[in-house]
Design a protein that fits this description.
Structural class: mainly alpha
Shape: globular
Strand content: under 5%
Largest sheet: none
Order of helices and strands: HHH
Length: 70
């Protein structure tokens, strides 16, 4: 049976870890709808993330928010 929840962790500065995460996410996305929860945003982004989620939903992630945060 396919897992319903998958936790992916990393060492924040490890390129290899991030590449492995991306590969796994691509594999999962090819199986069907996918919900990704990201914990790597700072508290200052919380209000903007909430507004985006209410207005756009998960399909339209604001790349500029990611750029400002990281």
């Amino acid at each position: 049976a396919d897992p319903r929840v998958v936790f992916l962790g990393e060492h924040h500065t490890s390129v290899a870890d991030h590449q492995a995460q991306l590969a796994e996410l691509k594999t999962l996305a090819n199986r069907g709808p996918l919900l990704i929860v990201a914990e790597m945003f700072t508290e200052r982004a919380e209000a903007e993330l909430a507004r985006w989620n209410e207005a756009s939903g998960p399909a339209l992630f604001p790349a500029e928010l990611w750029s400002r945060e990281w």
